[in-house]
UniProtKB/TrEMBL annotation:
Keyword 4Fe-4S: no
Taxonomic superkingdom: Bacteria
Domain Alanine racemase N-terminal, first and last residues per copy: 5-229
A GO molecular-function descriptor: pyridoxal phosphate binding
Function: Pyridoxal 5'-phosphate (PLP)-binding protein, which is involved in PLP homeostasis.
Protein name as annotated: Pyridoxal phosphate homeostasis protein
Length: 235
């Protein structure tokens, strides 16, 4: 069942790449497993997926401790500064923090990275549609935040992350994805020290195919793989 879901997602990714003349190897699928039990993750792991995304630090840390050591974990949810230390202690298992949107949070990640003698890869989260309900820096302020964070040598900026609005027709988000891609190209052209723009984390269950057509290199897909989430159930 989950394997079937995964197969469909992988086929859709390949198809979207083909439409955009892109090589599917340019797009990493992050299976978003928040609230889902470890058995579900094991099943998808068994199908060859190694990148998993989680939103809550405590849940992420427990899963890191229980699941195979070669999983690349992605912290995709809003991150509180007082939780950063728990992630930094497991920096070897955490591929990327996608959700950095303030200098204060970056500073704390930098401190904890140094304590653990690591450099932590991050993305800067952009609130592309200026939605009140979402975290992320505005498009206008992204460059100056990135210039500030670039000075922190325990952190390495790898690109941008965004969550587009929850719309009925994913086509409505195409312009947002295009706008993030353009922002990344602009920032990249400035050749800022310690800043790469090789990762664009955008596209979720509802819109990952459109996001890929517009240049996403990392899609974060939960529901289409694991089914709907039940937040009342303890995973
Ligand atoms: C939950 C979540 C996802 C996955 O969403 P689906 O619609 O289930 O694919 C992706 N990104 C973030 C930041 C999330 O919180």
């Amino acid at each position: 069942m989950l394997a079937e879901n995964l197969k469909t997602v992988r086929e859709n990714i390949t198809e979207a790449c083909r439409r955009a003349n892109r090589d599917p190897s340019e797009v990493t699928l992050v299976a978003v497993s928040k609230t889902k039990p470890e058995a579900d993750i094991q099943e998808i792991y068994g199908q060859g997926v190694r990148d998993f995304g989680e939103n809550y630090v405590q849940e992420l840390v427990e899963k890191i401790d229980h699941l195979p050591g070669d999983i690349r974990w992605h912290m995709i949810g809003h991150l509180q500064r007082n939780k950063v230390k728990y992630l930094a202690r497991r920096a070897d298992s955490i591929a990327l923090i996608h959700s950095v949107d303030t200098y204060r949070l970056a500073e704390e990640i930098n401190i904890q990275a140094k304590k653990n003698k690591r450099i932590i890869d991050i993305l800067v989260e952009v609130n592309i549609a200026d939605e009140d309900s979402k975290f992320g820096i505005s498009r206008e302020d992204a460059l100056s935040l990135i210039q500030d964070i670039a000075g922190l040598d325990g952190i390495h900026i790898r690109g941008l992350m965004t969550s587009a609005p929850n719309v009925k027709n994913a086509e409505e988000n195409r312009a947002y994805f295009r706008s993030i891609k353009a922002l990344a190209v602009d920032i990249n052209s400035r050749n800022i020290d310690n800043v790469e723009m090789d990762i664009l984390s955008m596209g979720m269950t509802n819109d990952y195919q459109i996001a890929i057509e517009e240049g996403s290199t990392m899609v974060r897909v939960g529901t289409a793989i694991f089914g709907a989430r039940d937040y009342h159930r303890k995973s």
